[in-house]
Amino acid sequence: MSSKEKRFTVAGTDINEVKQLNQQSGLSYNEVKTLLAAKYIKSKNEMK
């Protein structure tokens, strides 16, 4: 299947459009948690 073909869910959602919008949306929830945890650990280590 070509990447230019439209793929839709049963509800009519354009799958490729959703994937594109997700890529443009920024950090995911898990990426934010990881980033915050790393900053927290770094600040704790600097306080020692």
From TrEMBL:
<protein>
    <recommendedName>
        <fullName>DNA mismatch repair protein MutT</fullName>
    </recommendedName>
</protein>
